[in-house]
Design brief:
Length: 452
């Protein structure tokens, strides 16, 4: 299939819409749910520092490369990589970036939908007032009750997957643009409100110290790999999601500032979410390493302490669900776009992708109850998928993308697409792609494997 100038899937209305959509993809459960809990599990500050370094040295440069490839190819990541690998005379295995991405997408969507289902449950619980005057133990019990009920989890997972499928089937533009435009600013507003509340709690300074004092004692090889993996996960990199969105980006827009804006917003949301969650953790004597339930056991406590907390809490969980929704769309998009290029209708493609991910998601549902003892290398089904995708497949995909753009594309053809006007900025970026990003990923992998 030959791509015309805009590709068969259309183009975003403007550069600004791309920023919104890419931010919608990047800001999601990874920032509000996952970042605080893995930071807690990995001992705080030093982990945050490694994460920030990974965002700067690998995340942002790779994000620019991924968008560039998408816009140059104007097709699904699978076909884009097929065409560009041929054009740039790169070894055939670079085509595998697209395939590996589509597989990662299935894996991630399957568990992402289950966790997003939890946020839907919390919307209902908030509205019904079940969290009014809740204690830390009470919040823990409500969360524990949810996890132990596979049927309820399946129902919530199903609702979220259907919500995702309906928007994707309508086409990303109609479905996504309007939603993201109104919801993202509201989410930011809500986080600022909660940050204001957390400033009044006695645990705030402890939370700030926990996140920003760099105590390297806690840092292990495994936590460094996790920080790297999370920097890819949170920016939606290494699996083609941002490449697919890049394929719909207007040709004239410059990549540099656009991507910096997305990376900055994403990091800001994660840090603010971390401050909020850990203020509540320390104020209430909770355990920072409580795991995936951390957000769900802490935030209801904040809402029960706020005047009108029932309604603020309801609105907040609706917004988190929407943030998850806009991310889920981008997780499915690479596979759906590929099937459409194969001649499937968008509806059928969506049904197949979401249906398959739904079935796989049942494994995650069961891993919290019936299968909680079934482990592979000490990890449950959910932990294994999460580890395999975020800590291995995404960094590997990102490294290959950096190598492809850094080494197989000429400086001229790279900047013909990137349109970075400042030559120094362009040179720094290209240097990062050639050397820093691939070596950072490689070093961290080897460190994680305990090679050094
Ligand atoms: N970036 C999303 C988040 O932080 O929740 C998750 C995600 C979206 C991961 C898209 C990967 C992806 F391709």
């Amino acid at each position: 299939m030959k791509a015309d100038k805009t590709g068969m899937h259309g183009v975003w209305a403007s550069r600004w819409t791309f920023i919104l959509a890419a931010t919608g993809s990047a800001v999601g459960l990874g920032n509000i749910w996952k970042f605080p809990y893995i930071t807690g599990e990995n001992g705080g500050g030093a982990f945050v520092l490694v994460y920030l370094i990974c965002i700067l040295t690998a995340g942002i440069p790779v994000m620019m490369a991924e968008v560039l490839l998408g816009r140059k190819g104007r097709m699904s990541p699978i076909n884009t990589m097929k065409e560009l690998a041929g054009q740039e005379k790169a070894p055939q295995f670079f085509q595998g970036i697209g395939w590996m991405g589509a597989i990662s997408g299935f894996f991630i969507l399957s568990f992402y939908s289950v966790i997003a289902g939890w946020t839907l449950y919390y919307v209902v619980k908030m509205i019904s007032g079940d969290f009014s005057n809740v204690t830390a133990d009470g919040a823990g019990e409500i969360f524990g009750g949810l996890l132990s009920d596979p049927l309820l989890l399946t129902l919530l997972h199903t609702i979220f997957m259907v919500m995702t499928g309906v928007v994707i089937a309508r086409g990303v533009h109609k479905g996504l643009e309007d939603g993201v435009r109104t919801m993202m600013p509201l989410l930011f507003l809500m986080l600022i409100l909660l940050l204001g509340y957390s400033l009044t709690t006695s645990g705030f300074s402890q939370a700030a110290a926990f996140l920003f004092s760099f105590d390297f004692e806690h840092l292990t090889g495994a936590s460094v790999v996790e920080a790297l993996g999370h920097s890819f996960f949170t920016l939606s990199l290494g699996m083609g999601a941002i490449m697919a969105y890049g394929a719909y980006m207007p040709k004239q827009a410059s990549l540099g500032k656009t991507i910096l804006a997305v990376g900055f917003l994403d990091t800001l949301v994660a840090l603010v979410a971390g401050l909020i969650v850990f203020s509540i953790v320390f104020t209430n004597g909770l355990e920072p390493g409580a795991g995936p339930g951390l957000m769900f056991q802490t935030l209801p406590l904040a809402f029960s302490a706020l005047p009108g907390g029932q309604w603020i809490g309801t609105a907040f969980f609706i917004l988190v669900a929407i943030a998850a929704w806009s991310s889920a769309l981008s997780i499915a998009e690479p596979a759906v776009a590929w099937a459409v290029e194969k001649g499937w209708s968008r509806g059928m493609a969506t049904f197949a992708v979401c249906g398959f991910a739904w079935v796989l998601g049942l494994g995650t549902v069961l891993s919290f109850n019936e299968w909680s003892d079934v482990t592979l290398w000490g990890k449950t089904f959910f932990d294994s998928l999460d580890f395999l995708t975020a800590n291995i497949m995404l960094p590997l995909g990102g490294m290959l993308i950096a190598i492809f753009v850094g080494w197989f594309m000429t400086a001229e053809s790279t900047n013909a697409e990137a349109r970075i006007k400042n030559p120094t900025v362009f040179a720094i970026w290209r240097f990062m792609l050639k050397f820093v990003s691939p070596l950072a990923v490689l070093a961290i992998f080897l460190h994680g494997l305990k090679v050094f």
